[in-house]
Specification:
By secondary structure, this protein is an alpha/beta fold. It has one domain: Rossmann fold (3-Layer(aba) Sandwich), CATH 3.40.50. It is 37% helix and 20% strand. Strand 5, helix 5 and strand 6 form a beta-alpha-beta unit. The radius of gyration is 15 Å and the shape is globular. The protein starts with a strand and ends in a 5-residue tail after the last helix. This is Alpha/beta hydrolase. InterPro entries: AB_hydrolase_fold (IPR029058).
Length: 192
């Protein structure tokens, strides 16, 4: 487990479809399903970093408490799950773990604060612009034309838009949300 997916408050089937969209974009040979750990937001509050952290420890650290320090993690949060992901990632790092990056998908109104790389993805240009007032993070993405909030999560491969460089010194690049996510996973060593 090196990628922790923190869904929002919605039907769990949407998260399964999100994972399938990533696997398709990554050409399943590069992204192993067993590398993905999905927080059960249907059982616990999606916005609770404490519950996410407890879940991580139950999944990976029960038999080996030092595993937290030896397992670098990428967090992918959606909507209310971004609140939990930011909090859990900061706590994971405080406890001695390594956070490679955090991808905040449609975490409107959630400040991106932490001592690790963060990337914001938004379902439309206005949401992206207004959410960036609380921190755009590094490279970011917004869908254009905009898509519905839950559709953005369910089908990232169908959400076309723009990859923005952090300093805006480079022109935007046309790409799908799923391809943007897999490019970042490749950057952080999660894909070949």
């Amino acid at each position: 487990m090196t990628i922790v997916i923190c869904p929002g408050i919605h039907d769990p089937a949407l998260t399964q479809q999100f994972v399938q969209g990533l696997l398709e974009a990554a050409d399943q040979t590069d992204l192993r399903p067993e590398a993905l750990l999905v927080f059960p937001a249907e059982q616990y509050p999606a916005y609770s970093g404490l519950h996410i952290l407890r879940f991580l420890h139950q999944q990976c650290c029960r038999s080996n408490p030092d595993l937290a320090r030896s397992t670098p993690i990428v967090f992918i949060g959606f909507s209310a799950g971004v609140v939990g992901a930011v909090s859990a990632a900061s706590a994971w790092q405080t406890l001695g773990g390594t956070v490679k990056a955090l991808l905040a998908i449609d975490g409107w109104g959630v400040p991106l604060v932490g001592n690790f790389p963060m990337h914001r993805l938004s379902h439309d240009p206005f949401t992206h612009w207004s959410a960036a007032l609380l921190g755009a993070g590094k490279d970011s993405f917004y869908a254009d034309p905009g898509v519905e909030h839950l559709e953005f999560w369910r089908s990232p491969q169908a959400a076309d838009g723009w990859w923005l460089a952090p300093d805006r010194s480079q022109p935007p690049v046309a790409i799908s949300a799923a391809s943007f996510v897999t490019a970042l996973l490749r950057r952080y060593g999660e894909l070949r």
